[in-house]
Amino acid sequence: MTRKRSRNEVNRLTSALQTLNTRLARQALSLWQGRAPAGSPDQIYDGFEDILTPETIAGVSGVPDKQARIRIRHGLIDHYLQRRLMPHETEMQAWSRGAAAHVDGEKIYFPEVIPWCQKSSTLLKRQRLQQETGPLCKLLKPFAVNYWNIVLETLTDELGFDSYIDYCSRKKGLDYHRLYREMKALVARTDDHYFAAMEAWSRRRFNRPLKELSRFDAIYLLSLGQWDRLCPVDNPEPTLSFFSRWGLDPAHHPGLYLEIQPAAGKSAQAISVMVRIPQEVHILMRPEGGWIDLETLWHELGHGLSAVTTDPALPVVDRELATAFNLSEVYAFLLQRIALSRPVLESVMGLPEKTVSTMIFYKDLKDLSVFRRYAAKFISEYEMFSGSDLSDGRLYADTMARITGFYHQPESHLFDLVPELYCADYLLGWMGEAVLHNHLQCNLGCNWSQSPEAGKMLKGLWRQGNSLDIFSFFEANGIGELSPAPLLERWGRLADRPCPD
Predict the structure, then answer these.
(1) Inter-CA distances, 261 with 230, 283, 289, 340, Å
(2) Comparing C-alpha atoms, which of 238, 324, 263, 357 is closest to residue 33?
(3) Taking the C-alpha atoms of 228, 234, 235 and 240 in order, what is their torsion angle to the nearest 10 degrees?
(4) Omega within 30 of 0 (cis) for the link into 278
C-alpha cells in the first residue's frame, strides 16, 4: 500500500507541475507576442496553493526514484519561488519597460538596447548610450537587489539550502566549485590568441584599441553586421530548406510552431517556449536582418527540433521536468555552428571562397569572445554568491573587462545576472557541441551536415529527450568525454591564421 500511495503521489505532483508549466509557458508566449495574457499572473496558481508549500516540497523526499525525486522537488521549488517573487517581478518589469535612454533624440528602451546596438548605432551613439544607462541602472538597482534578497532568504531560511550555489548544484547535479576552477584555467589558455585577434579586429573596425571599447561596442561587433551586405537572404526563413537533407521540414513539423516574421509589439529576445513536449513547442524571434538572424534562428531550432522529436512514450519526468538544459544547448550550439559553416556558406549561400574564409575566421573569433563572456559571467556570479556583496558591481565589472577586454558598467551587474548560474549551462553546452561535432565529422566526413545520415543520427539522439544528464548522455551514446579539448583545438587555429581584411 505504501508503494501504491507513493506512485499516486508522484502522479499527482507530476500532473500538477505539467499544468503549472503549461500555464506559465502560455503566459510567456502572450507577453512575448505583445498580447495581454488570458488572466492575471497570480491566477496561474489558482487551485494549486496546497502543493506549493515547504511541507509538500519536503515530502517529496519519500519518492523512491532519485531522478524523479529531484525533478519533482525542484519543479515545486521553481513554482514556489515564482509565486513568491511574482509581485516583485511584476513591479520590476513595469519599471524596466518604461526605462529608456535618450540618445541624440532617440528613445532607447531597455529591452531594445541589443537590437539597437546591432543595427542602428554608431560608435559615438554607443558612447552616449553608456552615459545614459548608468544612471538608469542605479535607479532600478533597489528593485533588483530586493528581488535577489528574497530569492536567497527563501532558499536558505525556508527551504533549507546552505547557499545559492548549493541550491543550483543540487538542482542541476553540477559541481560548480570544480567548474569554476576549470573555467578560470580554460580562459587563461585562450588569453594570448584571443586578445591578439580581438585587438586587431577592434583596430580594423574602429581604429581604436580594445581597452577603449565597451560592452555596447561588443554587441555591435559580434553581430557580424559589417558583412550583412554579403548575406544572400533578406530573412532567415528560406534557409529552412536546408533541413530537407535530414528529412525535416521545420515550417510544417508536427508540434513545432514558428513565429519568425517582423511584427510590431514583439519582444526583441528570441526564445523557444516549451508548452508541452513534444506536442507544442514555439520558436519566436523578431528578425532584424543579416547574419545574426540566421544564427539566432538555427540556435533556437536546435532547442525546438530536439524537443518535438522527443519520444512521446517517455515518462513526463523525462520529457518535461528536466532541471538543467545544457543538453538542449548542445543541440542549439551545434545548429548555430552549422548555419555559418563552410558547407552551408558555399553550397547553400553560394558565397565565394574568399568571403567564406573571412566569415569563418570572424565567426570563430566571435564564438571565442562569446564563450569567454559566458565564462566571465559565470566566474563573477560564482564569486558574488560565494560571500561577496551582491549589491557591489565592481567585482563583476573588473572580471568582465579582464576576460572579455570590453568595459562593463559596475551599475549594470544585476541586470546582466542570469538566474541559476545558467552561464554554466551555456559553457557545458558549447563544450558538448564541439565534442558532438567531432563525433559526427569522424563518422560522416567533413561535409557531415549535408548527409541524410546526420539527420538520422541526430533524431536518434533527440528521441532520448531529457532522460539522461549531459555527462551520462555522452557516455551512454559513445560520443566521447565531455571536455574542452575540441574547443581549444578549434580556437587555437585562430593563432595560425592572419586576421583577414
Answers:
(1) 21, 11, 11, 21
(2) 263
(3) -100
(4) yes
Measured CA to CA in angstroms, residue 373 lies from 359, 401, 439 at distances of 21, 9, 26
Q: Which three cell numbers stand for residue 461?
A: 539522439
Q: Quote the mean pLDDT of the chain.
A: 93
Mean pLDDT, range 262-271, rounded to an integer: 85
**Which three cell numbers, joined as nine digits, stand for 474?**
555522452
Residue 422 has pLDDT above 50, yes or no: yes
Distances (CA, A) of 292 to 197, 367, 387, 494: 21, 12, 38, 21
Closest CA to 51 of 6, 10, 86: 10
Cell of 52: 506549493
Question: How is residue 183 written as a grid cell?
Answer: 573555467
The pLDDT of residue 501 is 67
The string of pLDDT tens digits covering residues 369-421 is 999 999 999 999 999 999 878 889 999 999 999 999 999 999 999 989 989 99
The pLDDT of residue 110 is 86
pLDDT digits (tens, 9 = 90+) for 34-90: 888 877 777 899 999 999 999 999 999 888 899 999 999 999 999 999 999 988 887
Q: CA angle at residue 85 from 470 to 399, to 5 degrees?
A: 55
* 436-439 contacts, C-beta under 8 A, 24 or more apart: 436/330, 436/334, 436/479, 437/334, 437/337, 437/486, 438/480, 438/486, 439/479, 439/480
Other C-beta atoms within 10 Å of 84: how many?
A: 16
CA gap 263, 268 in Å, rounded: 10
Please tell me the distance from the alpha carbon of residue 453 to that of residue 437, in angstroms, as a whole number.
Answer: 14
Q: Three-state DSSP class for 320?
A: helix
b/e map of 354-370 (b: 16 or more CB within 10 Å)? ebbebbbbbbbbbbbbe
The DSSP symbol for 325 reads: -
The predicted-structure confidence for 156-198, as pLDDT tens digits, reads as follows: 999 999 999 999 999 999 999 999 999 999 999 999 999 999 9
For residue 319, the Cα-to-chain-centroid distance in whole angstroms is 19
Q: For 6-18, what is each residue's pLDDT tens digit?
A: 778 889 999 999 9
Phi and psi, residue 156, nearest 5°: -90, -45
Q: Which helix (H) or strand (E) holds 100?
A: strand 100-103
8 A C-beta contact, residue 324 and residue 313: no
* Bridge partners (DSSP) listed for residue 100: 109
Contacts of 216 (CB under 8 A, 6+ apart): 113, 117, 121, 126, 129, 130
Is pLDDT above 80 for 300? Answer: yes
